[in-house]
Amino acid sequence: MKRITFLLVICTVVPLLQSTVQTSPPTYRSDNSDWWSQLRGADDEVIPTAGREPAASNFKILGVNLGDGMFNEAWAKLGKAQRVDRGDASSGRSQVCYVSVQGSRKIRLVFESGEIADFFYLFADGPNWNGSDLCAKSNLLTENLSVASGLRLGQSPGQVRAILGKPSVETGQRITYSIELEKLTPASDFAKLHRQHPELPEDDLRRNYASYTLSVYIEARFAQSRMNYLAVSKRETY
């Protein structure tokens, strides 16, 4: 993935592990054939960060919220799908994939959780990869499927900008948003943290948890000026 600041910070606001409701154990793939993944590894490109927070609707698709618990939400909404694990350490990632049943194009929706970021991906066609045969079929995936904000495949760059605003980088067939903000911890979340860390004095708790960094990464790719790939990530860290 692009070398941006938020990928270097790995401590979440509420450090919960992904729980699982599926009965079959994850399967492991040792290669990086998952060409669509932003967590396969870093390159040397540094993307400037902007400061405008996207609407929360950009992080929800088919009723599934990006972040902790998204695998369970996906299984409940779209049905059981095999979890695939890849890589290790900072490139370690777990993936759950769904694919369309009808239509002339293969529409895929992938949820991905890693040590340094969580993503969902929506893309059309593209080459197969080691594990693409494990994508579960779903009638809910169509060419008209959209993120709650209205982002969907087939949109023009102008339509994407109308929803997300001015991008951090726009080069040819790609638009990228890299956003990082410092935010105050909501009172309800701070109360939960207080219960989770009873060993910390009040002053230490406020020093460590009074605020957090919100980091967002959104990338849209285009073919013939129509979006055919969307990657969305949101992370809250200290």
Helix/strand layout:
Elements: E1 27-29, E2 60-61, E3 64-65, H1 70-78, E4 83-86, E5 93-100, E6 107-114, E7 118-124, E8 136-138, H2 157-164, E9 169-171, E10 174-184, H3 187-196, H4 202-209, E11 211-223, E12 226-237
Parallel strand pairs: 1-4, 5-8
Antiparallel strand pairs: 2-3, 4-5, 5-6, 6-7, 7-12, 9-10, 10-11, 11-12
Mean pLDDT: 85
Q: What is the number of E strands?
A: 12
Largest sheet: 10 strands, mixed
What is Rg? 18 Å
Quick overview of this protein structure:
With 238 residues, this protein is of the alpha+beta class. Helices cover 15% and strands 32% of the residues.
Give me some keywords for this one.
238 residues, alpha+beta, ten-stranded mixed β-sheet, 4 helices, 15% helix, 32% strand, globular, disordered N terminus
Explain this structure:
Strands 1, 4, 5, 6, 7, 8, 9, 10, 11 and 12 form a 10-stranded mixed β-sheet that branches. Strands 2-3 form a two-stranded antiparallel sheet. It has helices at 70-78, 157-164, 187-196, 202-209, and strands at 27-29, 60-61, 64-65, 83-86, 93-100, 107-114, 118-124, 136-138, 169-171, 174-184, 211-223, 226-237. The two termini are 21 Å apart. A hairpin with a 6-residue loop joins strand 4 (83-86) and strand 5. The chain is globular and about 60 Å long. The chain has one domain (5-30, 37-237). It is built from 4 helices and 12 strands; from the N terminus they run βββαβββββαββααββ. By secondary structure, it is of the alpha+beta class.
